[in-house]
Amino acid sequence: MDLRIRNATKKDLPAILEIVNQTILTSTAIYDYEIRTLEEQTEWFERVTDNGMPIIVADQDGEVLGYGSYNTFRPKIGYQFTVEHSIYLDEKSRGMGVGGKLLGSLIQRAREQGLHTMIGGIDAANRGSIEFHKKYGFVEKGYLKEVAYKFDQWLDLVFMQLILE
């Protein structure tokens, strides 16, 4: 079985949609309440790629195990060299190194694009994700208390930063 990181195509959107909706319904990795439609996911895909930013998938024998992307951190021109990334995996693919391959590819692509900083916004209770990011050089830079509400609880958000140069 060969795991390949490649650019996502619109043909990958049903698999990406299944992963994102699974994440929305079962975790605090995404602070959305409602699952997304294929139309909404297609609009997201077009918005990100039209902005010149990558959406990548981890493909194993034609099956999408996870995806990653980054996009502009904030819309002001001064933030043009800073991006915020996201990585989501199918539940059965966690702990197999898939996330690391996706993150490594995103970091490489960001460097090749001449970007300066990559940000990750992570639910503070997700210590696994925080430790994972530390392995790739990310540093905790901000802790925002009770900024989101999901599953009948207030959630804290950790911002992590990687200087790419």
The appropriate CATH architecture is: 3-Layer(aba) Sandwich
The tally of helices reads: 4
Give the helix level as a range of percent.
25-40%
Radius of gyration: 15 Å
Beta-strand content? 35-45%
**Strand adjacency order, main sheet:** 1-2-3-4-5-7-6
The pLDDT mean sits at 96
Number of strands: 7
CATH topology: Aminopeptidase
Kindly report how far apart the N and C termini lie.
Answer: 34 Å
What count of structural domains?
1
CATH homologous superfamily heading: Gcn5-related N-acetyltransferase (GNAT)
Q: Please tell me what the overall shape is.
A: globular
Which regions contain 5 or more consecutive residues with pLDDT less than 50? none
Largest sheet: 7 strands, mixed
The CATH C-level name is: Alpha Beta
Q: Structural class of the secondary elements?
A: alpha+beta
State the order of secondary-structure elements, H for helix, E for strand.
Answer: EHHEEEHEHEE
